[in-house]
Amino acid sequence: MPIKITFLGTGTSQGIPIINCDCAVCTSVDSRNKRLRTSVVVRTDGKTILIDTTPDLRQQLLQNPVERLDAVLFTHAHADHIYGIDELRRFNQLQRERIQVYADQTTLARLRLVFDYAFGEGDLLPGIPNLGGRAIRGPFEIGGLRVQPLELIHGSRQILGFRIGDFAYCTDVSKIPDHTYADLGGLKILVLGALREAPHPTHFSVDEAVREAQKISAQKTYLIHMSHKIDHGQRSHTLPASIEFAYDGLTVEVD
């Protein structure tokens, strides 16, 4: 099943450059060091799926247009992953239908609390997102496309990654539970969070992410959610051949 993945953003919660910072990465002329908040679009089997709605979503979709959205998946409810949700209203206008969002019960409850105006039933309302909430309790389908949720640990929180075919997406992760490794076998592409060089309580460091990637043994791993402590060009040369830093706008395909 061919899958096309477009990285809309590959940066941490502050984005890169961060406000009022004159470090080498924030002032870099290398476009790969300009990072919007982390999100991807997945196209496969005639479906277009967005994972997370960052505060940069409008800018991301102007730079990487998509004609429609068949569903939105949420990994967790932190601000950098949900606060662009209002931009989904444009797809309601274009598609003339309610867009279904999928999240675990904790995240869905948070979305319904913060964006109570966006969830409903019946006729579409103008000027707002019109969303339907689907609680994830196990593998599910989007128009016949199977999605496998992946249990991950983000500090003290349990969050979700997702596997679609031979592609898996695991951002904001500090630990992979033992039982999740079974769902990560035989991957062609793994996307994995790698915040910075130094250890962090809620995210893998680069070295930790590399070790996990080698343990999972996907054919190719792309690292995301990098802070301004990571210079794309300089650090890339030190990574194993099967592992790369992603960058905003990068599109990769699984055959």
Could you give a short description of this structure?
The chain is an alpha/beta fold and 255 residues long. It has helices spanning 57-63, 79-82, 89-95, 105-114, 206-216, 232-236, and strands at 3-9, 39-44, 47-51, 71-73, 99-103, 131-135, 140-142, 145-154, 157-164, 167-170, 189-193, 220-224, 243-245, 251-254. The radius of gyration is 17 Å and the shape is globular.
Folded structure, characterized:
With 255 residues, the protein is of the alpha/beta class. The chain has one domain (3-254): Ribonuclease Z/Hydroxyacylglutathione hydrolase-like (Metallo-beta-lactamase, Chain A). 17% of the residues lie in helices and 29% in strands. The chain is built from six helices and 14 strands. It has helices at residues 57-63, 79-82, 89-95, 105-114, 206-216, 232-236, and strands spanning 3-9, 39-44, 47-51, 71-73, 99-103, 131-135, 140-142, 145-154, 157-164, 167-170, 189-193, 220-224, 243-245, 251-254. The strands form two sheets. A seven-stranded mixed sheet has the order 6-5-4-3-2-1-14. Strand 9 (157-164) and strand 10 form a beta hairpin. The chain is globular and about 55 Å long. The mean pLDDT is 97.
* Structural shape: globular
Category from helices, strands and their pairing: alpha/beta
Q: Could you estimate the helical fraction of the residues in percent?
A: 10-25%
Total helical segments: 6
Question: What are the main properties of this structure?
Answer:
single chain; about 260 residues; alpha/beta; Metallo-beta-lactamase, Chain A; seven-stranded mixed sheet; 6 helices; 14 strands
